[in-house]
Amino acid sequence: MLGQLIAIVLRILGITSTVLTIEQEIQNILGAPAQEATLTDVAGLVADVLTELNDATNGLAAIKTQLALDQAGLLLVIGTPQQTGVAVTLPATPPAGYGGASTSDIATAVWNFDVGDGNQVGLDVLEMRQWVYNAGQFMDIPKPDNYPFVLQSNWANTAIVAYRKPVQLDVGTILASDATVHDWVTRVYPAVTWLVDGNGFTNAADLNHPQSDWQIPMTDAQFTELKIALGLELSGQLRLPPIWPGLANVVFASGVFTTVPIAIDGPMHGAVVAIVSMPATPAQFDFGGQISFRHVGAVSFENDDGDAETFVITGFTDQLVMPQQMTVAQRILVSIQPGWQLQIAPFTIIS
To answer: In the CATH hierarchy, which top-level class contains the domain 247-349?
Structure first.
């Protein structure tokens, strides 16, 4: 077909060249300098033009005939042109190498082409399609129908059909008392067999494919964050004032003696305030053998920003005082009445 088209085109180019030659001769006649021509001259020019136009091979009639033949030949070769807006009608049997249900060596060579390491194009394309499908269906944690599940399976040996989650998890059922994911799901969904894998994640088998697991990929720390987001737990580490841990678990600094108000730098977790001397006849109270004196003084603890908490009145012979609004104090502030002497021994907790 290509050879036929080339021959027709070359023939049309030849006709075009002839027409241009005749046109040039006419232009030469019309453009000749104005001069008084004899009747013989005019007759000669007309005769020349008529000869060219009536030539049996390259004349006007011959050109029209040849063009008509060439037009018919072109239509025969190319067939009916495709029309705009009309669906393309493909041949019932694809030509060799076209694809589809073909045994063409070209198609086979394309799909079996080795892209390296023994991997073929066709198999790689199928594997990519399978991976994308798996990821889109089961690995997208935020999907509302799966959250917070992720499906795990041996995709190479498992058909992706008819998967069923054991339950539809509802994070609204989490309680503050649920310490872990496993605690939560075993409490709310006791009919399901829940297992904890080597990564610490809780799993349950698929209802239709027991070899496949629905996993909740949430660590204990992430579960705590979820509880915080649900308002079931305070954000961050809970901070409490120090508690006396026992004598073996504290280290005392050297005691400071004073008869006047002073400030003693820490840091410290508390102090023991002992009465060293007192006025002759102080007022006192007996607490089961422990004597507390009136009008001795008071102490307050100060934080790292220079803020003092509410003071504590001192009066016992040996009195334990510890901060009430902070985990560690930067100093202790001591107030003392005239006539009294105190020893203040700060301490820190070591365990």
So the answer is: mainly beta
